[in-house]
From TrEMBL:
Entry keywords, A to Z: Lyase, Pyridoxal phosphate
The family this protein is said to belong to: Belongs to the beta-eliminating lyase family.
Cofactor: pyridoxal 5'-phosphate
Catalytic activity: L-tyrosine + H2O = phenol + pyruvate + NH4(+)
NCBIfam families: PRK13238.1, tyr_phenol_ly
Protein name as catalogued: Tyrosine phenol-lyase
UniProt organism field: Desulforamulus ferrireducens
Gene name tied to this protein: tpl
Length: 458
């Protein structure tokens, strides 16, 4: 018997990857200021920086690229994308954008007024940045279990209804334009939200006239966990679960670069015709015509086909099982990871991995840098650097979770690559006591984790 599920695809095209010496790796991470975002792709062996836009597209998607209708308005590919979103997700209106943050920007501008509050199940970096730039204050209303890396709650992405109600009571429903519900929750470790919780959030929001907007970036992964873990859904298809999930939303932002299986693209989906009209006005200003929104026709075609491919059970089952394979190897070796294992990545708990490094010396940032230095494996920090600073006081946000994300691209790497990653992390864990902290030597004013630079503390 195989120890794991074989890939439900065969490899047609290969891309050589870098094999660097230890000296070359050390020089590269130093040149990058100990920030894995600033590494050159040519210097990376196994790239687990992100699953965003790193998907290997199918032959069917590439075939679709050849029938791109590049008309400036009314592209055939737009209507195919619109029909696909309506059929698979159930929304009435679709506004294409160049990627997810384009949709976040438009949603924030059409819904938020200065002084508003936007609750959500843990922040995401670009989402919160757009909300704050529009004048809102983000409020985390996720359940407490989400902040504990070792808690095995099956739906750690759930909204705490008492926290949501408390915010409504404190600031008034009129100052809450919508609640942002992420499926799954990235910074909690790729943790899902239950159908029951989505239904209850919708009921509470509707009672107070508050809209529910999904961050739907990894909705297929969320649907898989519902099928696996939630009573009554074992016999439902992924497509059926998705349709019910989105029935509890008034709209959604989508980065197509994740669960839509493409390298670029996204959209804002809505049910309200008035919001849709406002969105089409702004997409012209920031992105392009409402029928392309910053995308070529061929990219919209690839996304439409990717959405349909993504609901295949064997595709998503393989994806989740490959991630679990890596997580279980690390867990068996005693490496501290976020549990339960989530949908798109394995998250190393840097607090437990490097307990001797205080949080303001950026332990997760250093852990990611050291992993690259010994193996050429690129990961990313999801802790104090990503959390940024308080807009009023200028102090660091100190999140309870200080994590390194090993993000698995879709349909790209094999189980052999997962073995290499596991061996490298385990080797690093054995000599963790020798790893020093970092100091920040350059900090941009917004989304600092992308371009900040660091030096080791000697």
């Amino acid at each position: 018997m195989a120890k794991y599920m074989a890939e439900p695809y065969k490899i047609k095209v290969v891309e050589p990857i870098a094999m660097k010496t230890p000296e070359q790796l050390a020089a590269a991470i130093e040149e990058a200021g100990y920030n894995t975002f600033l590494l050159k792709s040519k210097d990376v062996y196994i790239d687990l920086l992100t699953d965003s836009g790193t998907t290997a597209m199918s032959d069917n998607q590439w075939a679709g690229m050849m029938i791109g209708d590049e008309a400036y308005a009314g592209s055939n590919n737009f209507y195919n994308l619109e029909k696909t979103v309506q059929e698979i997700y159930g929304f009435k209106y679709v506004v294409p954008t160049h990627q997810g943050r384009g949709a976040e920007n438009i949603l924030s501008k059409i819904c938020i007024k200065p002084g508003d509050y936007v609750p959500g199940n843990m922040y995401f970096t670009t989402t919160r940045a757009h909300q704050e730039l529009a004048g809102a204050t983000f409020e985390d209303v996720i359940i407490d279990e989400a902040h504990d890396s070792q808690n095995e709650h099956p739906f750690k992405g759930n909204i705490d209804l008492n926290k949501f109600q408390a915010l409504i009571d404190r600031v008034g429903a009129e100052r809450i334009p919508y609640i942002c519900l992420a499926v799954t929750v990235n910074l909690a470790g790729g943790q899902p939200v239950s159908i029951k919780n989505m239904r209850e959030v919708k009921q509470l929001a509707e009672k107070h006239g508050i809209k529910v907007m999904f961050d739907a970036t990894r909705c297929v992964e969320n649907a898989f966990f519902i099928k696996e873990r939630e009573e009554g859904y074992q016999d439902k298809s992924i497509a059926e679960i998705l349709k019910e999930m989105f029935s509890y939303a008034d709209g959604a932002t989508m980065s197509g670069k994740k669960d839509c299986l493409v390298n670029i693209g996204g959209f804002l989906a809505l049910n309200d015709p008035d919001l849709y009209q406002k969105a089409t006005q702004l997409v012209v200003l920031y992105e392009g015509m409402p029928s392309y929104g910053g995308l070529a026709g061929r990219d919209m075609e690839a996304m439409a086909r990717g959405i349909r491919e993504s609901v295949d059970y064997y595709y998503i089952k393989h994806r989740i099982e490959q991630i679990r394979y890596l997580g279980e190897k690390l867990d068996a070796a005693g490496v501290p990871i976020v549990k339960p294992i989530g949908g798109h990545a394995i998250f190393l708990d840097a607090r437990k991995f490097l307990p001797h490094i205080p949080q303001d010396q950026f332990p997760a940032q250093m852990l990611a840098a050291q992993l690259y230095k010994i193996s050429g494996v690129r990961s990313m920090e999801r802790g104090i650097v990503s959390a940024g600073r308080n807009a009023v006081t200028g102090d660091h946000h100190y999140p309870k979770l200080e994590l390194v994300r090993l993000t698995i691209p879709r349909r790209v790497y094999t189980y052999a690559h997962m073995d290499v990653v596991a061996d490298a992390v385990i080797e690093l864990y054995k000599k963790r006591d020798t790893i020093p902290g970092l100091k920040m030597v350059y900090e941009p004013p917004v989304l600092r984790f992308f371009t900040a630079r660091f030096e080791p503390i000697k």
